[in-house]
Design brief:
The protein is of the alpha+beta class. Helix content is 40%, strand content 25%. The chain contains three helices and six strands. The strands form two sheets. The protein has a three-stranded antiparallel beta sheet with strand order 4-1-6.
């Protein structure tokens, strides 16, 4: 089954496990103050800028994210709505870019320390 991600999430409370879609290996455990789908969102924005007809091009998710407990509290944003908000608010775009870069760096360091391949 192919999953198409059209939303980005920010974890408020709880933990989730990230696994590789192709082979099922565990990539990371993520928790409070982490994004889910930030790379897919950035690729979505890049595709939107490239497509003059504004055709919705959405990247396929490369990982599965599953809550570790029954409850995972998140903020959720639709890609289309979030990208339109960021066009109108450059400070919001800059803050998202900086924080998501920091978040992705942290995830990569954690995965590499555990011997994972991404």
């Amino acid at each position: 089954t192919t999953t198409v991600l059209c939303d980005s999430y920010y974890i408020i409370d709880g933990t989730a496990t990230v696994t590789c879609k192709t082979d099922g290996r565990k990539l990371a455990t993520i928790s409070q103050h982490c994004f889910i789908g930030e790379l897919s969102f950035l690729l979505y924005v890049q595709e939107r800028r490239r497509d003059s007809d504004e055709q919705k091009q959405v990247q396929k998710a490369s990982a599965n994210v599953v809550a570790d407990n029954k409850t995972l509290h998140v903020f959720e944003w639709d890609f289309d709505r979030l990208s339109k908000m960021m066009v109108d608010d450059r400070d919001l775009w800059n803050a998202f870019a900086v924080y998501s870069s920091h978040d992705m760096r942290k995830k990569l360091l954690t995965a590499n320390a555990a011997g994972g391949r991404i």
